[in-house]
Fold this protein.
Amino acid sequence: MRAELLASKAYTLDEAGDLPGVLRTLEEAARNLSGKEDPRLLLSIRHNLVDALSKAGRFEEGKELIGEVKRLAFRVGTDLDSGRIQWAEGRIEAGLGNLDRGISLLLSARGVLAAKGIALDTALVSMELALLYLQQGRKDSVKDIARHLAPLFRAQALPRETLAALTLFRRAAETGEISSELPTHLLEYLRQTRHHPGLVFSEDDQSRGRSEVETKR
């Protein structure tokens, strides 16, 4: 019960964008696990902890836990669980300097998310891939990423404001005039829209390639 309550608290903290709080809460939840809980709860806490560690740049710690998470997912997880775990693992591998391995895992994760029709997460993985490609100087690959976002535009599966922000990315990628600044800020913006879909990418920030986000009024 204690672990389950802490997992719920971590979700609330994630909604507020409090990553340090999420980490502290999930670490406490993990310490309160007896191993006798519902396997789905075990998987959720372990996976969310790895995901938070990877977002916080604590890649070595995430690497130590990823094996256990993958074993749990093999036992009780779904294809979507596996895709999300690949997402976190790809972030970890890239953070440890294994860029090609990280890209491969992120591409697999994006394929799963796109097949499931989860548009926002597909866009998020795409921004992470774009940043890795730019780190390698592969602007043509960034252009391919932008083209793969086209189905999201056609499906209209995202809020209008989010689509407008992604259109900015697509246009910048197609011209080849894109730096890491735009996808970096778009990544932060998209993460916020998960819990606050009314957020917009302001016109002033678009023109500067930055994403100070304001609440839509």
